[in-house]
Amino acid sequence: MNILDFFGQPDCNFIIYASAAVFLIFLLTARIKNMAAGASCHARMNKANFFFLLVYMAAVAAYCILRHVFTIQILAAFMGGIFVFVTLQQIYLMALIGLVKKSVSVTVVEAAEMPEGIEEKELKKKFSGNADAVRLNRLEQMKFLGLAEETQNIFKITGRGKFFNALGNIILKIWGLERL
Amino acid sequence: MNSYFSAVSPLCAIGISVAWFSAGVFVHLIICRIAGTPKYMARGLACGFLLMLCLAVRQICTHTVNIVVLYYVLTLWLAYMMFFVNLMNSVTLKMLDFMAKRGGTLAADDFSQIFGSDSAIVSRLEAIKRNNFLRLENGRLYITTKGRTLVSAVRIIRRITGVTEAG
Fold this sequence. Notes:
The structure holds two protein chains of two kinds.
Chain A: H1 10-32, H2 41-67, H3 72-102, H4 104-111, E1 118-119, H5 120-144, E2 148-151, E3 154-157, H6 159-175
Antiparallel strand pairs in A: 2-3
Helix pairs in contact in A: 1-2, 1-3, 2-3
Chain B: H1 10-35, H2 40-61, H3 67-89, H4 91-101, E1 105-107, H5 111-114, H6 117-130, E2 134-137, E3 140-143, H7 145-161
Antiparallel strand pairs in B: 2-3
Helix pairs in contact in B: 1-2, 1-3, 2-3
């Protein structure tokens, strides 16, 4: 049995290979076009990834039409292919980029890299401003996501915000966990 | 030669993956209910590692190793962990909860009471020192070998991925 014969059906295997191949093309395109550079790389990469996902879906649909293969197994393989494509981006690639780009801990460790080290007070002072910026950024994000509304610097939770907050708290309660 | 690898139908692959993932979630739920929040991340990763180990051992013993099934289960588990990490750590969600608990209306400055600039960096710095990435000597912080290895690894990944801005 071949390691790459996942499903025992060439058409279904092809759908998974195509998913990995299109993702590889996306990766090469993202690297050549330097999509990870700059401040808004997450939005840019997600947009490009969505475009390549559409290309993949169209290619699989065309393949199925040309070969007249429409079965429940093909549909399951197609769902699997979409899962592979989306998770390679969201679970692996973006987590890696998030770590090397946005991790506060990594930035703090980097700040103390010189042989003479850095004063603890100086380092705290340096990153205090960052925390203020993060707080303001998150307030803006709440507005953008429709979780809160702002009127003259007063923030009010929206119905959507109440719903997501309650949902999050219910899940945490079931698992017996608390916010950190 | 008897191969360790085996093909399964796409529907069956989804069914097996969901069944293993659900079993892992059920065990993790019980562990969380018993042990609570402390060391949540370490326990979650250990639980995921054991889940993957059990699945791999079973597949090897029954000569049914299937890369797609292993990928599905591993990725579902990582997504599940990321969901909880975000739910527990997200500053946006914490601010939302803070606002909801105070009647749903707050001035922008009121958020600084709980999301103060010092508390965030102090707790992060303590964790960094505790994990031995930095060491404190006479009020100065010095990078350790472990910290230097981390920074070097991050720089290599930045070069490969083309990340130019950090922080």
